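Q&A log
Question type: sequence-to-structure
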Amino acid sequence: MAGEAAGWSWTSALWDAGTAAIGIYYWTLRRGYGVLLGPGGIYIDPWGQHRLDEAATRERAARDLAEAQRATLATVVEHSDDAIVGLTPEGLVTAWNRGAEKLFGYTAEEMLGRPASVLADADGAEHQRDVLASIRDGAGGRSYEARRLRKDGTPIDLALTITPIADQTGAVIGISAIARDITAAKEAAEHQRAVEQRSNQAQRMESLGKLAGGVAHDFNNILAIIGNYTDFAIEETGDRPQVQADLKQARTAVERASNLTRQLLTFTRGDAIQPQDIDLNASIAEVHAMLQRTIGEHITLMAMPAKQPLVVHADPGQIQQILLNLAINARDAMPEGGTIVLEANVAALDGDELNMQPPLPAGTYARLLVSDTGHGMSPDTAARIFEPFYTTKPQGKGTGLGLATVYGIVTEADGSINVYSELDIGTTFRIYLPLVTAPTTIDTVTSRQAPPPGDGRTVLVVEDEPALARVVARIVGNRGYHVLVAGNGPEALKLYDQHRCDILLTDVIMPEMSGPRLADALHELDPDLPVVYMSGYSNGLLGKTHVLDEDITFLEKPFTACDLLHKLASTKRASGAGGSPRHSQPADITTASGSDRSPT
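Response status: OK
Response body:
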């Protein structure tokens, strides 16, 4: 029995151990996974049931949250203003949200299953294929800007973000494309760039204006000296026609140099102008008379004035400059000969005209036309002709300032310009200027009429350039004025204190004291003293802008003797005839040193 008892003991121990293992395994399954539970199952204690219920609740909550997040994401995607498009790796559309419908104009039914290349032109489709191929090859997502087409064919600029969709193995199974409309943003950026370019150009022009003004002041003094001494020599060589012909060539060169300086100052708005009511018919007649002698026998020049006066408020010299610049450009476009027509009429605008630079509101305007039968211009050339320093002429034949100057003058006068040109047919420039409905009396005195004599009146000439001062003194003294000459403001005040004067003729820019400051000082002594300012560049000293007040008498350098004497004569009339001349000897010239001498 002892041996049998020992065997049974081992058998019992092994049975107990197996039973315990099965029990532990069962309870592990019951607690962890809830198996073998339920109606008719093994008994479950309340605490275990509570834990199982909590686990089930957490699982349901997690599933509900995931479903809610997916629903929210789907709603966001569907209602996004950006176009969100799903694609196959080959580029077929698999998803198309409302943003895509609004952006491209296609409905989801129209686009699902179709290739995305229908949204691009040929170049865009090729680029699109390259992007899809690189993503299929594992290059990853990318962002870029591209132009695509709406359903109606209109282009649209987009910011695109392309992202690959991969499965668990890393293989690309789809592509997500997000497109945002940046057309308005690009237009705003282009506008901002244009504003910055205009600002930079304005700064460059301001710098150019300062440089041009500094040069023009001295350059115009030199031109005035050369031009007037040339006129003196022409007067003294009436019996020597060959010498006169040579001198006239020199005088023509002075006029060309003067015109170039005036163009540069007009373009940079560094000159001083005096707008007044003028008849465009008279301007056409003067320019026609001027050009008829010089434009060449191979050119037929025609003038067609309006049937009634066309009065505008502008600077007469600038209107003539417009006509001269356009006529000379027309002549240069016809080396084999042709016809130039200068015309004036009235035009009614409705405000919707194309190619008006700048646009004008609806209304009735005076219109100047300069037409030619030359070679014409291509559209690319016509689009750039008003750019400064742009010229199609050979080097040395053009400055590129002529049409830019015309544009500056026209816009300054609140007008507009339009150009129409066809290759091998010709070109027509149309200039529109506001009409003056109630014009003031138009001065009909022209420089071709002889100026009246000075009648012994005293002119105080103030000029810091000695050679030009001698020229002015000679011109004025020979016409019957008594002349006082000073080189600066303090000398002028000293001369006035000693001799008085009837008219002050002063340069604007001078050392120590400017012309306006000198005039203010003399007006404290004689408030009614007439003043004539002369300058080639006033530098804003005659007003806040380059447009002179109507009560300022201004003589632009370089000037001729006739221009100078007419200015003095008109000033004498404006001052009245009641005053008596200070001196009775018209040919005397008194300098700041106090010496008297006759003009040479």
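Response note: Residues 37-41, 573-580, 583-587 have pLDDT under 50 and may be disordered.
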